[in-house]
Every structure is written in C-alpha cells, then in structure tokens.
Amino acid sequence: MKELEGVAAFITGGGGGIGLGIAQCLARRGVRLAIADVSAGKLVSARALAEEEGWAANAIFLPLDISDRGAFAAALARAEESCGPLRILINNAGVAVNGPVAEAGFPDWDWALAVNLGGVVNGIVCGLPLLRRHGLGGHIVNTASLGALMPPRPTRGIYATTKSAIIALSEHLRLDLEGSGIGVSVLLPGPTRTNIEDSWQLRPAELREGSRFDGLAKAGTTQPPADLPWRDPTEIGEMTLAGILENRPYIVTHPEYAGAVKARNRTIEDAIADWGDAGNG
C-alpha cells in the first residue's frame, strides 16, 4: 500500500498501548479508523485522546471481545458501514499470562489461546473476505512478540507459545496471499510502555477458577537490561506504518535483541549439524 488518505482500518486492542500508538500514527495519515477494545474505560480514554489530537471525526470506537467470533464479524460490519471498505486489518489485541508453563492449568491455556491466538484467527477468518471482496488491495498486521524468537525465559512459556504461533500463521498467510494485492506483516515488539501486564484483570471469572498461577500475572513484567530501551507505543506505530507502506514481512522494533535471537537460532543450527554428523558417522 502506498496511499493511505481515506483508507479504512480496523485495530483490535486499539484503546491503549501499541494499538492506540498505531491508531495515532495512521490517523495522522488521514486513515479512517475503527478502534476496537474489550475495555470500555480504554475506549473512553482513546476517544478523549482522539478529540484532543483532532482525529475523532475520522474514528469510531467499538467494544469487542476478540474471542467472540460473532461479535468480531458484527464489529467489522459496523466498521465498514462507518468507515468504508476495509483495507487495513491490525490484529493487535493480546493478554499476558505469566507463570511457569509446567504448572499451567487448563484455564490458563484456554484464556491465552482464545485471546492471543484465537483472536488473530477470528480476525483473519472474519476480516480477510472483506479485504478480498472490494479488490482494492490491503494489508494485515498481526502482533506477535520479539520474545517468541528468543531463548526461553521464566514465566513466559504460555505467552511465547501463542506468539510463536502468530509468527508461523503470518508467514504462511503472506505466502498464500502473494500476488493478491494484500500484504501481511507480523509485528515483533520488544519492551514497550503498555499496560499489558494488567490484562489479568480482564480474565473472565470462569477462567480464573482452576488457574494454577493467576496471581503471578499481577507481579508485573521483568525489566530488560538498563541499556535496552523501553519504546513508546507511538514509536511502534511509526514502525508499523512503515511496515505497511513497504509491505515488510517482519516489523522488528528492537534490533538490540538480535544477539539473543541469533543465539537461539545458533543452538538449533548446531543441533542440525550434530545430527548431520551423526548420520555420516
């Protein structure tokens, strides 16, 4: 995509954090926005910010639980009614589920999979036909995490599992849509100033009962080393905007983590080499 003025975009998790940062950057380019979020309070705050910055007239604010397929389809329909043919779909919403993966119970998995992975699947199944229908081309951005490409870290097993799946999903979707005029990028953010660690408050009551480590999600995130920056959501928004315009397969926000990613890849490559040597022995 090269021209964004007047284009319609749908953003999940758009009431705060990275989603709102992306919305702000798209709004500055004249994009008509449908901002969806499960938190009514965040939608109120996002609307207030839009009014303050002068782009509220080009935006609608929709309550949405992305794990609800019927609600997702209805929200997309409402977005097209208000903003026009959908051209940009940003599957950004996600939750943090922190705790030792070996101790996780079904409620922990069910919530993380339903929101982090299921929400992206719902967005694609419900939204992709809309991007195809008008024949104008478009772009899909799925938010994963740079942490999903790094060596394992304590308490991040479930989160990394869901985000790793989003990477694979995005890579295959991009391949499937090659030549269609619809681009696909996977957003791989590092440490960003968001409130994702407070997302445990949104966990449904029925998925708290039986959780083996729900309380650990309240402990807050592990701080990265002091020499690695926490980025502002609008910085991530600008990077995402560039990724859309240039149809980049990967939008990586923190090159400072390249060493950790290479270390994990090197371990895999060494294992392959070891097995190759064993087969030739």
UniProtKB/TrEMBL annotation:
EC annotation from Swiss-Prot or TrEMBL: 1.1.1.268
GO molecular function, one term: 2-(R)-hydroxypropyl-CoM dehydrogenase activity
InterPro entries xref list: KR_dom, NAD(P)-bd_dom_sf, Sc_DH/Rdtase_CS, SDR_fam
Keywords per UniProt: NADP, Oxidoreductase
Signal sequence, start to end: none
SUPFAM superfamilies referenced in this protein's UniProt entry, alphabetically: NAD(P)-binding Rossmann-fold domains
Protein known as: 2-(R)-hydroxypropyl-CoM dehydrogenase
Lineage, broadest ranks: Bacteria, Pseudomonadati, Pseudomonadota, Alphaproteobacteria, Sphingomonadales
